[in-house]
Amino acid sequence: MDEITEQFLIFIRLFRRYTSYHHKNLGKYGNFLQGQGRILAVLKMRPDISQKDLTYLLAIRPQSLGELLVKLERNELIERHPAQEDRRIMMIHLTAKGKKVSEKMDEAHNIALFNKLTKEEQVQFSQLLGKLSNAMQEELPEGDKNERFYEDPQRHFEMFKQFQKTHGDLPVKFFETETKNKCCQKHK
């Protein structure tokens, strides 16, 4: 194994431990990168969202989301209720208790480790990661149609950034349009 691969593997393992360590100090919901913490982070931006839209936005299976929602509901952090315009649509709502918990999570959103780098190093590191991500994306075969979010994680993050900026139109529409365009282009 060459040195750069070895150093990168060490970095990945340490980075997981590092983020887990810092997030656990914020309690069991403190990790906005996974599980219930991810759901609370999205609900903090949009306190009332449909379960279907939340599934798309978080790029997880409906069954997995359902299990996480049951836990959050049991701890009185969320409530579920039918949508007024269509009672078949289940809406997820952040409770007052859930709002308090999600407020604590703001502390965890920026990972202090990267402050060890100068601004120029941060830009360069980000560019290098982007370059390697693009190379991997080009080389990997097309993913399973049932896991379309994982075909293009960069596209997924773009969708999430749009959601953070707008708080209005759900990026699901944006994402579905892109997916349909890709599909149509492939069949031409």
From TrEMBL:
Keyword Transcription regulation set for record: yes
InterPro entries in the record: HTH_MarR-typ, Tscrpt_reg_MarR-type_CS, WH-like_DNA-bd_sf, WH_DNA-bd_sf
Pfam families the UniProt entry points to: MarR_2
Domain HTH marR-type positions: 1-134
Keywords: DNA-binding, Transcription, Transcription regulation
Highest taxon of the lineage: Bacteria
Keyword Transcription: yes
PANTHER family to which the protein is assigned, alphabetical: TRANSCRIPTIONAL REGULATOR, MARR, TRANSCRIPTIONAL REPRESSOR OF EMRAB OPERON
Protein name per UniProt: MarR family transcriptional regulator
